[in-house]
Amino acid sequence: MYSVHAEAPSPPCPEPFNLAGHVLACAPEAGARAALKVLNPDGGAEVWGYDRLEAAVRGTATGLLRAGLAPGDRVLLRLGNTPGFPVAFLGAIAAGLIPVPTSSQLTRAEISRMAAGLDPALVIAGEGIALPDHPAPVLSEAVLRGFEALPPANYVLGAPDRLAYLVFTSGSSGQPRAVMHAHRAIWARRMMIDGWYGLRADDRLLHAGAFNWTYTLGTGLMDPWSVGATALIPGPGVTSLQLPALLCAHEATIFAAAPGVFRQMLRTPGALTLPDLRHGLSAGEALPGSVRKGWNTATGTMIYEALGMSECSTFISGSPARPAPDGSAGYPQPGRRIAVLDAAGQPVARGTSGVLAVHRSDPGLFLGYWRADRETAARFAGEWFITGDMVSMAPDGAITYLGRDDDMMNAGGYRVSPLEVEAALALHEQAGEVAAVELRVKADTSVIAAFYTGSATPEALAAHAKGCLARYKQPRIFRHIAVIPKNANGKINRRALRDLKEAP
């Protein structure tokens, strides 16, 4: 039996279509019912009803169009952990504009490089967040908030395959790549509702991430709103150790986070008593078995893991309806078509390792990389999109994750290219030659480490990294070595570096 999973495809996306209109389709009927609660450390919350949320989104669409923007213009989002982020994102899409969400942690140099390739028509910025060196006008968050009172714009409808938004992902070349997603991407996420979430309209889903993380934007906000549920998001200042109390106070029924957050919460003093919680959701990086078992023992609830990527969101997962077997990431979600391929692009036998591939007909698959046709074409082999994840498929279809087929690093759920980190550190005049790798420092914890040959001190390199790399890209370990090991082709031997760190 070959490693191919193919079943009846999901229903086609309606046409004409608008992503924001789909997300807020429940708003007229839901009225003042809570769509969003921004949770404070003291247990209080800022509450947004569905009526206010839709008014803010459609008013923002009006404000952006009155500012002179035209459908197809890119809008760079430089916003922090506030409700303004999803309002600006959906408002731009409602108006036919192309929002580009970015992490507020990015430095001026990093966001300037991104903006140069995007040429945005507008930057929407929160106070204190680094702005790009670019001539585009800047709209403050204060002005954005005033758009809520404007007359509501109509949703701009069109073909589901047209470009809706861009998100950045680290590329193997070392330069972040802008991933183009169509309006139909939100329609494809319906396959996650039962295939991963077990989400219902009466749920209260608490996502531990910040507003401006794409994992939060999809799983924590847009998907709950698409079914009429309530999204709970921790506001600024909330720590992982405060989350158990907030889960209880707001009667959260589903909890979503990266694996590291679950691990930190297990250190909470006292019992983890979460009487309303049905289950947890994990994505961003592999969930250690010890964390899964510890959470189940402490709370009596399961964590359902999902595997995906920026180009297709999640498409492999366990769920309440079909839990993942021990050691596996789960099953292809209903409606997905995936395969495990060999180096020649042919399906391997079940139980054999290979590269995970998604069929090019998947409605959630990206349109391509922004202004990078050659890079886009390189990711396809015939009818399949090649993910770069090494997996094996069991006889029953369960997928076991085996790692990456390249040197990409994972830092708290963010994919980071070692080449990008190396290029930034090499700018320090005393760094010498630099190599970055992901190191496992505990059974369930990995960090980014930098090896270097120059005369700089670890403290000097750490300070340099702080000035030119976002926090999640900064190495946590700096180690001086005499020579960077190379393979026969003259490339950095990262496996040898990992062995070197772990040796006595």
What are the defining features of this structure?
single chain; Rossmann fold; 504 residues; 2 domains; six-stranded antiparallel β-sheet; alpha/beta; globular; nine-stranded mixed β-sheet; GMP Synthetase, Chain A, domain 3
Summarize the structure.
The protein has 16 helices and 27 strands. It is of the alpha/beta class and 504 residues long.
Q: Quick one: biggest sheet? A: 9 strands, mixed
* Highest-level CATH class of the largest domain: Alpha Beta
CATH superfamily of the largest domain, by name, is ANL, N-terminal domain
Amino-to-carboxy terminus distance: 45 Å
Strand order, biggest sheet? 3-2-11-10-12-13-14-15-16
Number of helices: 16
Number of strands: 27
What structural category do the secondary elements indicate? alpha/beta
Q: Over all CA atoms, what is the radius of gyration?
A: 22 Å
- The CATH topology label of the largest domain is Rossmann fold
Strand percentage lies at 25-35%
* Shape descriptor: globular
Based on the coordinates given, report the CATH architecture of the largest domain: 3-Layer(aba) Sandwich
Determine the fraction of residues in helical runs and give it as a percent range: 25-40%
Low-confidence stretches: none
The figure for the number of domains is 2
Mean pLDDT rating: 93
